[in-house]
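### Sample
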Amino acid sequence: MKHSNKSRRPAKFWPVMGFATLAGMRSMSAPAFLSHYLSRQPHAGLDGSSLRFMQKPATATILKTVAAGEMVADKMPFMPNRIAPEVLLGRLVSGALVGAAWYRSRHGSALGGGLLGGLVAVASTIVSYALRTGISEKSGVPVALVGVGEDALVLAGGAALLRGQQPAHGEWRPM
C-alpha cells in the first residue's frame, strides 16, 4: 500500500454542503449548529477573523434560541413562503455565513466557502419548498404538519453533521 507524505487536509467541502442544505430548510438552524460546534471546539483558523464571533458561547446560545423560534414561526399562516425574495435572501446569507465560517475555520477561503454555502442554501430552499408543498398536496396533510417533519429532519441532520466532525476513538485530527 502506498503511503502519502502529505498531511491530511481538513474537510471543508462536504460539511459545508450539509450545513448549507440545513440553511435552505431552516435558515437559523445551520448557524446555530455550527456555532454550537465551534463554541465547544474553537478553531485557530478563525483567530483574527471577523467570523470569530461564531465561536463564542453567547453567539451559540442566541442562535439556538432564534432557531427554535424560527421553527415555531415557520408554521404560522402569515409567514411568507421560503421562496419569497426577502426570505430566500436570508437563507442565502445564512448559507454563506456557515460556508465562510467553516472554510475559514479550516484555514481556507472564507469567500470560497461563502459562495459555496450561499449557492447550496438557495438550491436547498427551492428543493425543500417543492418537497414540502408537494407532500402536502399529494397527501392532504397540512403544510404546517409536513413542516414538523422537516424540523425533525433538520435536527437529525444537524446532529449527524456534528457527530461527523468528531474524531473517531483514538484518531487525531488537526485543527
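The chain has six helices and no strands. This sample (DUF4126 family protein) is used throughout the tutorial notebook.
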